[in-house]
Specification:
The protein is mainly alpha-helical. The chain has 36 helices and 2 strands.
């Protein structure tokens, strides 16, 4: 491979030999030197690309002569060339290393900063040791431009060799820059520390109120992206008193009116963090919470990618602080015709979260249109939202039923499946009500083809089998395809036929149920379905009145929360500090999709330098370190107590051929009187539960 690369490089050199010769001659012409350097910067950036470019690295000795010129613009062009070349061929720039170190002491602060920036951009690990001293000098430079360049240089060297930064004591010096008099230096120090703390397996620094005050003061004098870095740093500050928390909140609140969405969401992150230090029921907490509503709503007018990030962030916020959007207008989250599907889905969730008894009819009117959308996934989401409204607001059920009947009449294929599931939910929430729609539900039998919808329809027929005249005929249709159905449908059919038998006790219902139980025992492999069949067989073999009390018992009404708490509380507290990073959009810890080792630029093993001790064992994914932005908490491992062996009741019930002491089983009086076809045979001296016939 190396020989091929060298041959290719040699071929390219011969091809661009004239260009290289022309560039070399221009370098020694004072009038054309700067123009030649600009061309070389472009060529260096294109090295290794399919377009091809002259291998300008061979002219590096000639370029070094240009550094001797006192012309600042020429020196700047040379350093731009070295930076571009270092990105594609770092080894070639090592010959200029000593010269760059010497220029870090140049009287001109611009040259010092350029030399330091280019020096730390050379990604050669063996050179990392020589970068420490120039960086240390730059951190104490009198010029703020050099200091802020040196602060970022620490982060670059940490990516290259964490041990050099840690052993050289550069981190405490960068932390001191957070109290610098120049706001741009403070911002760059914050940026560097934010980068380092996400990679370091130890606590980088602890922020005090004095440092937080300096950071807050720098907010008003920085660019918008520097403000984001400063706000991210403020999430590390843990106020000791309520007054300190209020001070931070008051100083950060003006950032809610910023035009940059990243600044706004970073401010939201800081406010959420510091609100946790205030009493949740107090006026202060409520006032600061309400101030976040309107700024968040204004983000709905920005491009769709920003809208999506904001909507995902809002889900996190309202789970922790449900009253945040109490004053928001629900129309803000109505879907537009040109919104992409992923934005529409999130908007529907937010609409339901904002639903109240006063605006639920307005929301349902909007959802009715969404249910007829050409996007099947979005229409199904809207139908699920209709079901949530029906469960949460009894006054809206009639309007929800009309929406569902409209979908059933139009026989929209995808939405119809979801509509059947919603009807089941409504029947569970309001039993023995709205039975007038059973005819329309049963008429849609031919269009139902998804397992979830089939299971819901079978449940409805079984629940109301004593009121549906054709219940036997409908269940018989599912009975014929029983072995081909998914497990949820099989479980629902077992329960529905048991209810049918207990409700009407017809000969056909007995035959179907008995055959169904036998088929389940002989052909079905799902242990849950087999266990359910065995349970019903044993139950129906006894007192049928007891069986009715069990199978036909009233179900507790279901409750639905408009705000889905589908994020674990511990995970929510982690990703609240990661707004608006990728983890807050995915609703996952950083360690769930980024391994700890990949956060380091170098794939080597760490040296034991004290604070990095134990990093080797934590490289493959340290959730604790990443929860707090890379700060690990080392705790002694707990010795797990030896748990007693679990009893496998299901295995005993199925087919493990476990001999069980037989006990006399008197024929129940009620079962004998009614002639239950499921009565067991008591003439067995030793019972053996066999997989072939567990009922013998």
């Amino acid at each position: 491979a190396e020989a091929t690369t060298m041959a290719s490089s040699s071929h390219m050199d011969r091809e661009h030999k004239g260009d290289l010769q022309e560039l070399k001659s221009d370098l020694y012409d004072a009038k054309r030197t700067k123009k030649a350097l600009r061309k070389m910067v472009a060529h260096a950036a294109m090295l290794g690309t399919p377009q091809g470019a002259p291998n300008v690295s061979v002219l590096l000795p000639d370029v070094m002569q240009c550094l001797e010129s006192p012309d600042v613009e020429q020196k700047k062009a040379v350093y731009l060339f070295l930076s571009a070349l270092a990105a594609t061929n770092a080894d070639a720039t090592t010959i200029a290393f000593n010269r760059m170190v010497r220029d870090t002491s140049n009287p001109n602060p611009l040259i010092r900063a350029l030399a330091l920036r280019t020096l730390t951009g050379v990604k050669v690990e063996s050179m990392a040791e020589g970068m420490a001293e120039p960086i240390r000098a730059g951190l104490h430079d009198n010029d703020p431009f050099v200091r802020k360049t040196a602060a970022l240089s620490v982060a670059k060297v940490f990516d290259l060799s964490p041990e050099v930064v840690e052993s050289g004591g550069l981190l405490p010096q960068v932390t001191k820059l957070l109290e610098d008099s120049n706001p741009h230096v403070v911002a760059n120090a914050a940026t560097a520390l934010n980068e380092i703390r996400q990679r370091a397996p130890f606590t980088v620094f602890e922020m005090t109120m004095a440092t937080a005050t300096k950071v807050l003061a720098a907010l008003n004098e920085c660019t918008e992206w520097n403000q984001v870095a400063l706000l991210d740093t403020l999430t590390l500050f843990c106020p000791r008193t309520e007054r300190e928390a209020v001070t931070v909140l008051e100083r950060v609140t003006p950032r809610l009116n910023h035009s940059n969405a990243s600044v706004l969401m970073s401010a939201i992150k800081v406010m959420l963090h510091h609100l946790s230090f205030l009493p949740q029921t107090g006026d202060l907490s409520r006032n600061f919470t309400l101030k976040m509503a309107q700024p968040l709503c204004t983000l709905m007018s920005l491009p769709t990618d920003i809208q999506y990030t904001c909507l995902r962030t809002l889900k996190i916020v309202i789970q922790k602080y449900p009253s945040v959007l109490a004053t928001a207008e629900v129309k803000t989250f109505f879907c537009k015709y040109n919104d992409p599907s992923f934005v529409k889905m999130e908007k529907v969730d937010l609409m339901i979260a904002l639903a109240t008894a006063e605006n639920v009819h307005q929301i349902l009117s909007e959802l009715r249109e969404y249910c007829h959308d050409v996007d099947g996934s979005f229409a199904r989401q809207a139908m699920r939202a209709v079901g949530k409204c029906a469960v949460a607001f009894e006054a809206s059920v009639d309007q929800c039923i009309k929406i569902i009947l409209g979908v059933i009449e139009n026989k929209l294929p995808f939405v119809l499946q979801e509509a059947i599931v919603v009807v089941q939910t409504i029947f569970r929430r309001y039993p023995n009500q709205y039975e007038g729609i059973l005819t329309e539900i049963c008429s849609s039998l031919d269009e139902v083809d998804e397992p979830g919808a089939k299971a819901a329809l079978v449940w409805i027929i079984g629940e109301y089998s004593d009121r549906i005249e054709a219940a036997e005929e409908i269940l018989e249709i599912f009975f014929e395809t029983y072995t081909e159905e998914e497990s949820p449908v099989q479980l629902a059919l077992l329960t529905a036929l048991s209810k049918l038998y207990l409700n009407i006790q017809s000969d056909r219902s007995v035959d179907m149920l008995q055959e169904l139980l036998q088929v389940t025992n002989e052909t079905v492999n799902d242990p849950d379905v087999r266990e359910r069949a065995l349970f019903y067989w044993r139950l129906l073999a006894g007192d049928l009145e007891v069986a009715r009390e069990v199978v036909l018992a009233p179900k507790p009404p279901i409750e639905a929360s408009l705000i889905e708490n589908n994020i674990d509380a511990e995970v929510c507290s982690v990703i609240c500090k990661r707004i608006p990073f990728v983890s807050s959009v995915l609703f996952k810890r950083p360690s769930d999709f980024v391994s700890y080792k990949n956060l380091y630029a170098c794939p080597k093993e760490f040296k034991d330098t004290g604070l990095l001790k134990g990093a080797e064992t934590r490289q493959n994914g340290d959730a604790d370190a990443l929860e707090n932005g890379g700060q690990a908490k080392h705790e002694p491992a707990a010795v797990a107590a030896k748990a007693p062996p679990a009893v496998d009741l299901l295995g005993d019930l199925l087919s493990l051929e476990v001999p069980v002491q037989a006990q006399p089983q008197p024929q129940p009086v009620m079962a004998a009187a009614m002639g239950s076809p499921f009565s067991p045979q008591p003439q067995v001296s030793t019972a053996t539960f066999s997989s072939n016939n567990p009922f013998s």
